[in-house]
Amino acid sequence: MSTISLRLADSLHRRVRELARRDGVSINQFIATALAEKMSALMTQEYLQRRGARGSREKFARALAKVAAVEPDERDRLS
């Protein structure tokens, strides 16, 4: 495990302290979790961009053509 020194504005420190308290975790755990969530979001975005670059309109149209043209179940209808 690594240690880093982090400088926070006083207002941000107060807010993170309060949020961590409400969440029942330490400030360290709160910040580590927030960092992991941000990294996950960025990595997901990169993955989807790479995956999207491999797609094509033709493949999409072929897949869509396989979907049956039926009305949705009553529970699935948009109002």
How would you briefly describe this protein structure?
The chain is built from 3 helices and no strands. It is 65% helix and 0% strand. The protein has one domain (10-67).
Could you characterize the architecture of this molecule?
It contains 3 helices and no strands. It has one domain (10-67). The longest helix has 28 residues, at 27-54. It has 79 residues and is mainly alpha-helical. The termini are far apart. The protein is elongated.
Provide tags for this entry.
elongated; single chain; 79 residues; 0% strand; mainly alpha
- Run of helices and strands: HHH
**Overall outline:** elongated
List low-confidence stretches: none
Class of secondary structure makeup: mainly alpha
Count of domains: 1
Major β-sheet profile: none
Average pLDDT confidence is 95
**Portion of residues in helices?**
55-70%
Percent strand equals under 5%
**What's the total helix number?**
3
Measured distance between first and last alpha carbons: 52 Å
Number of strand segments: 0
User: Radius of gyration in whole Å, from Cα?
Assistant: 23 Å
